[in-house]
């Protein structure tokens, strides 16, 4: 349920209260040390300083009506009002637990937004429950928007919006010219009717995403547009990533893909999707990997998930629903598991062929030599019993 309440952060700021920190002076060599929820909220006193977590922080019992750090104070939702984060925040392998946001404003997440020069690293956001109202925009488990750098971070839990929600992602709502590297999200992402640009990791990408994955389901209702297991819309670069969650929309939905809903002049390389893609009646452009590819480049990718639409649906493909003047090179889909014999681009293969390494090495894919000492070299790994997996996905070091 969406509610309005006096913001804890705004009230503290109005009263001129600052909590201080456990230690540090906010410089890069001596960052402020954060060990309590009050310390975390006090980051708002200086959004350009440097910070480090010294332990896990449990936010149980606190419900926020805005982002915890750098909140949007524009209740009219005509744009962002406030200052976004430009400092550095090192989670040091620790995590923020049980973040709860119930809000009617834009730019939701632990951070509202990260701007040029801002950096978030080595941080987990676990069991978040972020609920936005109708017309929500820019919502993610970690941040609503990113123009900075996010490295070695993850988010779990749920991100949800009402009708006409835009730019929702499991980790980041929108990535504009920012970098997201070695990150993942496993939570569900959902919107209501008329939702657009929803993704398991990121709703909209115009930056760089590398060595990342998403495992949560992504869902919209009727008239939903551009939903993807990893990203809703991509206009940037996505490399060495995968998505495992299911993607679904209601009647009249358009542009749904196992990895991304739409790719406009973007580059997708060394990626795959395994989730199911399903929509209701009169759906258009559904694909195991991508719903639509417009003047984009997709290289060395595959999809295995089933693709289905209701009555009067069109533009369904095992790999791609619609390809408009784009290039799809050395890409494959499993005809058996997808239930699709056709695709607007790519090559359909049997399950046995998809589990044979020579299928991919003959297409120029770079595999690690599992028998050699340098097994870490090479982008892909395969054991001949399963589909190719990415060898370059790095496991994030979690502290208890």
Automatic annotation (TrEMBL):
It comes from the Bacteria. Keywords: Signal. Gene3D superfamilies: 2.160.20.110. It holds the Pfam family Glug. Residues 1-22 form the signal peptide. Residues 136-160, 165-190, 195-219, 253-277, 283-308 form the GLUG domain. This is GLUG domain-containing protein. It comes from Sedimentisphaera salicampi.
């Amino acid at each position: 349920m969406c509610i309005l309440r006096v913001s804890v952060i705004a009230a503290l700021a109005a009263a001129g209260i600052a909590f201080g920190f456990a230690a540090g002076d906010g410089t890069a060599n001596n960052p402020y040390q954060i060990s309590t929820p009050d310390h975390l909220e006090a980051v708002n006193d200086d959004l350009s300083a440097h910070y480090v977590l010294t332990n896990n922080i449990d936010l149980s019992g606190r419900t926020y009506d805005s982002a915890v750090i750098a909140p949007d104070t524009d209740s009219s939702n005509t744009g962002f009002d406030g200052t976004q984060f430009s400092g550095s925040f090192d989670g040091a392998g620790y995590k923020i637990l049980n973040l709860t946001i119930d809000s009617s404003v834009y730019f939701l997440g632990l951070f509202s937004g990260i701007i040029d020069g801002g950096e978030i690293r080595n941080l987990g956001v676990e069991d978040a429950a972020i609920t936005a109202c109708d017309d929500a925009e820019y919502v993610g488990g970690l941040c609503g928007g990113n123009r900075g750098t996010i490295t070695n971070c993850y988010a779990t839990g749920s991100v949800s919006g009402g009708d006409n929600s835009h730019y929702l992602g499991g980790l980041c709502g929108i990535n504009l010219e920012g970098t997201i590297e070695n990150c993942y999200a496993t939570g569900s992402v959902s919107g209501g009717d008329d939702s657009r640009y929803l993704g398991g990791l990121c709703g909209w990408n115009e930056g760089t995403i590398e060595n990342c994955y998403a495992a949560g389901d992504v869902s919209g209702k009727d008239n939903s547009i551009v939903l993807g297991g990893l990203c809703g819309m991509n206009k940037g670069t996505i490399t060495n990533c995968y998505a495992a969650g299911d993607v679904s929309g209601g009647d009249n939905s358009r542009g749904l893909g196992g990895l991304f809903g739409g790719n406009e002049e973007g580059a997708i390389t060394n990626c795959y999707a395994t989730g199911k893609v399903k929509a209701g009646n009169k759906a258009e452009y559904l694909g195991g990997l991508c719903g639509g590819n417009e003047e984009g480049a997709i290289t060395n990718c595959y999809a295995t998930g089933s693709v289905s639409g209701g009555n009067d649906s069109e533009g369904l493909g095992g790999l791609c629903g619609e390809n408009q003047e784009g290039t799809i090179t050395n890409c494959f889909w499993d005809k058996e598991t997808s239930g699709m014999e056709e695709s607007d681009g790519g090559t359909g293969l049997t399950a046995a062929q998809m589990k044979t390494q020579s299928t991919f090495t003959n297409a120029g894919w770079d595999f690690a030599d599992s028998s050699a000492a340098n097994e870490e070299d090479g982008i892909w790994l395969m054991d001949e019993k399963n589909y190719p997996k990415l060898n370059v996905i790095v496991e994030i070091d979690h502290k208890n």
